[in-house]
Amino acid sequence: MTFEDWAALAGDSATSRTEWAAVLGAWAEPHRRYHDVAHLAAVLGIVGELADAATDPTAVALAAWYHDVAYDPRRSDNEQVSADRARIGLLGLVPDAVVEEVVRLVLLTTSHDPADDDADGAVLCDADLAVLAGPPEHYAAYASAVREEYAHLDDDVFTAGRTAVIEQLLALPRLYRLERTAALWTEPARANLTAELTLLRSLAAS
């Protein structure tokens, strides 16, 4: 996540350096517990590993930088705000067509449901959801960090909201769209999600 990494995508200029610093600063906001610089680094790393599957690897990598650049747990439009931030921040740094693809990809992380022929969307969404397929202890740490981000909600409200999110993920026709990620990650991810959903439902019933 160095400036050199960013400059490979958005060029080396004073404007580019200022934007890189602003983007990193946003990811480092103190209220973030999961959607932080560690998550950014993880998504960027996986996007890099999957870059050969993308149609526009530069746009996908830039979308990774911006996909949660705006993150306020009290709002429901973070993806839209992040997309708008990308459109403004990248203006003049990359071609307009790349900016629009970045915006499209960032908005796609609202549903994580890219079309079958959307290679760029598949790479970004698979990278963003990779955390779901981690070992159970890693998944538990992720779920705990998400709960910390929503500390302003009482348990009943959070449980209802989190249950809806997990049900939406489990209802996707496929959690992962690339063959290589689907083969490796689908089974552990569904097991982790199902285990958390079972816990949440038991808490709601108690």
Task: Provide a descriptive summary of the structure in words.
The chain has 206 residues and is mainly alpha-helical. The protein folds into two domains: 1-128, Hypothetical protein af1432 (Orthogonal Bundle); 132-206. It is 67% helix and 0% strand. It is built from ten helices and no strands. It has helices at residues 3-10, 14-27, 37-49, 57-66, 78-89, 96-108, 119-128, 136-149, 155-171, 179-205. It is globular, with a radius of gyration of 17 Å. The model has no long low-confidence stretch (mean pLDDT 97).
Bulk shape: globular
**How many beta-strand elements?**
0
Determine and state the CATH class of the largest domain.
Mainly Alpha
Structural class: mainly alpha
Q: What is the string of SSEs from the N terminus onward?
A: HHHHHHHHHH
What is this structure, in a nutshell?
With 206 residues, the chain is an all-alpha fold.
Question: Could you give the topology of this structure?
Answer:
Blueprint: H1 3-10, H2 14-27, H3 37-49, H4 57-66, H5 78-89, H6 96-108, H7 119-128, H8 136-149, H9 155-171, H10 179-205
Helix pairs in contact: 1-2, 3-4, 3-7, 4-6, 4-7, 5-6, 9-10
Keywords:
206 residues; 67% helix; Hypothetical protein af1432; mainly alpha; 2 domains; 0% strand; 10 helices; globular
